[in-house]
Amino acid sequence: MTRPVDSGVIFIARLALAVLFLWGGVTKLLGYAGFVSYMQSKGVPVVQIAAPIAVAVETLGGLFLVLGFKIRPLGFILAVYTIATAVLGHDFWNITDPVMQHDMLIHFLKNVGIAGGFLLLCTTGAGRISIDGARAPRSGLGR
């Protein structure tokens, strides 16, 4: 079990990660045609399947992060997704312009760091301030 202060920190971390994913998912949904074009320009296979999956993962994943629902498996799924988007969307190794290459490298490494945050959620769980925490059994020892 986590201490109350730990649950508060985990909640803030979940919200910080959720903002990025909710904003990204909603932005992709509102500019769907442009998002599909971007994916095609990056050579993403089966864009007609990948694009709606990306929108759903980001939007629902962000919502589940806020609510603290199924955080351990969600953390793993979002870590894998974030690494995949780093490889497909921030391919710095294919950029010849040094300024753009540096920019893509920074975005790639940020995705790696975000994936690390999701892996931590796999370990910590959602904390008490969550649906998962509300559903967890409590011992009679005040934990």
TrEMBL record:
Q: Which UniProt keywords apply?
A: Cell membrane, Membrane, Transmembrane, Transmembrane helix
Subcellular location per the Swiss-Prot or TrEMBL entry: Cell membrane
Q: Which GO terms describe its cellular component?
A: plasma membrane
Q: Which top-rank group of organisms is this from? A: Bacteria
Q: By its UniProt entry, which InterPro entries does this protein fall under?
A: DoxX, DoxX-like_oxidoreductase
Note the coiled coil stretches, chain numbering.
none
UniProt main location, coarse: membrane
Give me the segments passing through the membrane: 7-26, 46-67, 74-93, 113-131
Topology in the lipid bilayer is annotated as: Multi-pass membrane protein
Pfam family, any one: DoxX
The family classification in the record reads:
Belongs to the DoxX family.
Which protein is depicted? Answer: Putative oxidoreductase
Q: Which organism is it from?
A: Paraburkholderia megapolitana
